[in-house]
User: Fold this.
Amino acid sequence: MEVTEELPRDVLEAAQMATSELLPEKSRDKYKRTYDIFNKWYQEKGVKTVKEEVLLAYFVKLNKEFSPNTLWAKYSMLKPF
Assistant:
């Protein structure tokens, strides 16, 4: 995701490191894979900033492929990123 101008890079990096350490080792790869798929999608769409509308559009797309329970799981996997 794009670095926002409101927060210094070192603050964002520290927050990302803390978040990644909260994930269990077994789950980390699954979370990362889910994020990478989202990251590829939004870059293909030319999105510069991730906003509520972007996430909504992404989950509308996923809604055609996955059940509501899976959508919630994928959403929760994206929250740490």
